[in-house]
Specification:
The complex is a heterodimer. Chain A is mostly helical. Chain A is built from 11 helices and 1 strand. In chain A, helix 2 runs parallel beside helix 6. The longest helix of chain A is centred in the middle third of the chain and has 38 residues. The radius of gyration of chain B is 24 Å and the shape is elongated. Classes of the chains: A mainly alpha, B alpha/beta.
Chain lengths: 275, 321
Amino acid sequence: MTTQSKTAITQDLILAARKGLRPVAERSWLGGFGNLLSKELGQWWGTRTWWVQAIIWVLLLNGVSTIVALSESGLAIEKLQEVVQTFLPMLVATVGIGTIITVQGAVVGEKELGTAAWVMSKPTSRSAFILAKIIAYFVGFSICAILIPATIFYLEMPFLISTPLPWMHFLVGVSVAILNLLFYITLTVMLGALFSSRGPIAAIGIAMILTGLLLKSLIPLQVLLFTPWLLPDLSGALALRMPLPPGWFVPILAVSGWIIVMTAIALWRFGREEF
Amino acid sequence: MNPSNGNVIHTQGLTKAYQGAKALDGLNLQVPRNSIYGFLGPNGAGKSTTIKMLLGLTRPTSGKALVFGQDIAREGLAVRRRIGYLAQDPRYYEHMTARQTLRYTARFFYSGPKELIEARIEEMLDLTGLSNKADRSIKGFSGGERQRLGIAQAQINYPDLIILDEPAASLDPQGRHDVLDVMERLRKYTTIFYSTHILEDVQRVSDSVAILNHGKLVAEAPIEELLNGSGSAAVYSVTLKGDAGQAQKRVAGQPWVQSLSSEAHDGLTTWQVGVTDNDAAEDELLPLILEDRSLRLKSFGRKTHNLEEVFLNLVREEPSK
């Protein structure tokens, strides 16, 4: 360390410099949010994360849907239904699993490493920390794991199937997948705020998805309506303008409600965290 | 009226208990503005717990902490705008470089202009000797380099209070010397509150010291007062040549003399005179001795201790509860 710094500090210089710098003006409950979000988004878009994620999801989702499209025979409309019913439900389910695996360390990892304590020693709020995580992962996954594969899927279909896929309805189906993504991000962040190790987070999150995939038929409809487990089927049905049962919108409203509740729990719990 | 009374840190009965066990027990602390305040104590004494509460990282079980007269529990964000903090084991994002870490830190405080922020970052890199490693990933940093980065990030916002938790613990002797040097230079701009177990450093740079043991404050005083013996009690050391028998009786008979031990060596007699009233001792002790014209005074002075003696005495006196 330079004991006699080249830049000799005088009080006047310090005061002058301080006057020149613009203090951050953010509401106290969201203090530091802009900086935290910028850093979180930077970890997606400023590194290779985004294109690695995009390649993985494109290879997985578009690869499988292309194979299905090429192997299907029969009427074009049936072929289209089969491919869309494969792509969107698979998108909903696999992105959920991918989200849990990727996001499980977002909060716990920072608690374990001590970086959360360091960040919290700055003028930043705990709410800002949690919200920045949710938003950054939501933006990153929405684009890399849903929008890029969905766009490729939509542009690819005319070359494989002669029946057109109405873009408005397809977009509605994709929106359901995005809602499902947000559900699993908030679930994982909430678990990260509640627990202090990754084990329970991954276990609960994966169990949640597997229950929906494997045991859905055993669960009464009145219960299913209030879970995210109907969203895979709903996304495909909405994209294909298929007839929908009464109350089809209940899972959408319920999952939206769960997202709000889980975000509130994450904010409350992390607000009480002791570092 | 503000209870902090001009002190930068003011705690009242600050207590932290974990599952019933008190890590900190009713801490009352006053840290004056522009002081270098050493916070001492053996491992597990509650130093880091106190620091975490001052930063709002941990909530007190009872009592309160005011920093700049503001309650940390209610106005934590406003308080932290004026604080720079270096943790005992500083952790940063490993993928970032030192420059990126400082930029990230600076943006919690300042939104611009970019050139001034970058200039400040450059200044801090220079101050901590990290200029040539500024664009290297932190992953490869040694403990000492991380500590320097910690000191840089703690100062980036021109803090009015710097809180350092064991700032020199992982540094080599040169690094330690440099850290103390930086602390001394910053004294006129800011208040420094730091915990350490390196007593030699405390004695060198601190104005005031608090000693914590088993979660309780066992001493808080300006360093001179602590080394000279606190309050009105003191020990005087007197070396005489000649027969000191009569003088010893006279001195020992004074109501303000608590103890008098005598030791003869090489034709000299050395007394250790413990007194309860320092003012009386200063006025009367020497005249009482010199009443005896046959005695020759070889040395006289108030006995000073080194901090290690004081620290060990205080810590040993306070058994674990």
